[in-house]
Amino acid sequence: MNVIYNLENETYTKKDLEYIFHSKDNREMTDALFQKAYQIKKENVGTNVYLRALIEFSNVCQKNCNYCGIRADSGAKRYTMKEEDVLSAVDFASKERLGSIVIQSGEVQSETHSKKITELLKKIKSKYPNIGITLSLGEQDEETYRQWFEAGAKRYLLRIETTNKNLFKQIHPQGSDDYEARLTALKALKTAGFHAGTGIMLGLPNQRIEDIVNDIIFMRDFDVDMIGLGPYIPHKDTPMYQYKDIIPPEKDRVIYTLLIIAVMRIIMKDINIAATTALETLDPNGKKKALLAGANIIMPNVTNDDYRNSYSLYEGKTKHPTYKNALLSIEKMAESIGEKIGYDMQGDSNHYIKRGGSRYNI
Ligand code: 5AD
Ligand code: SF4
Question: Of all protein residues, whose CA lies closest to atom 2 belonging to ligand 2?
Answer without folding.
Answer: 106
